[in-house]
Design brief:
The chain is about 65% helix and about 0% strand. The chain is an all-alpha fold. The protein starts with 10 loop residues before the first helix and ends in a 10-residue tail after the last helix.
Length: about 260
Amino acid sequence: MATEEPGPSTAKEVRVHGVPKPPPPKPRWYERCVQPCVAELLGSALFVFIGCASVIENAEGTGRLQPALAHGLALGLNVAVLGSISGGHFNPAVSLGAWLVGGLSITMLLPYWASQLCGGVMGAALAKAATAGERFANASGGACGTVAADARVPAALAAEVLATALLVLAVCMGALNEGTRTPLAPLCVGAAVTAAVLAGGGAGSGACMNPARAFGPALVANHWDYHWVYWVGPVLGGLLVGALVRLLMGDEKTRLLLL
C-alpha cells in the first residue's frame, strides 16, 4: 500500500506544533540599576573636567568659541558612547525632563542626580589638579559666575531656562520620543550646548544649563556667587520641556492629550 505523502503544514499547525521562542532574558540588577549610575558618574566627571579645563585654559582671543566647542564636543561624545547604558543625561535637568516624558523611572531619578552631582565634583577636582594654580584662581575654577549684579539676575535666570529648554528638548525629542527619535541625537545634543554657550545664555548667564556643572566647580573653588540661578533656571527649563512634550509635542505613547 502506498504511503500518503505529508502535505505542507498549515499556519495553524505551525502555531500549534511549533516550539515558541523563549522571551529575551531580563537585564540583571547590576545592568538595570548600578551600571547606569556608574555611566552617569563617569560621563558627568569627564564632561565637567573638559568644560572647566576649557574655561580655565581659555586662550586669549578665542572668546566663547573654545568653551562652546569643548562643552558641546565633550557632551556629544559622552552621549554617543555611554548613552546606550544610561541614556546619556549627565545633567539633573535632563534627567528631570526624561522622567517627565517617561524615559526614566522614578526609582532611578534620585540615584541619577546623586551620580551626576558626584561626577561634577570629581570632574572639577580633576580640572583643578590638571591646571595651573594661578589660572585656576583667575577663572574661579571654571565655576559659573558671570552674573555680576542683582539687576542681571532676572535676565540670567530667563536665559538659563531657555538654554536648558533647548538642551532638554534635543534629548527628549531626539532620543526619547519615538516619533522623532534619530540616530543623530548625540550630535543634536552637543550642537544644542555649543549654540547656547556661543550665545552666552542670551543675557550673560554663561549658559550653564546643568546643576552638576555648576555645583562641582563651585564646591571645589568655593565660588557661590548667584549659584542658585544655575539650579532654578535649569530645573524650570526641564519642567517646561516635560510639560510641552507631554501635552503638545509627544507621540501617541507620550502625549497625555490625544485629540
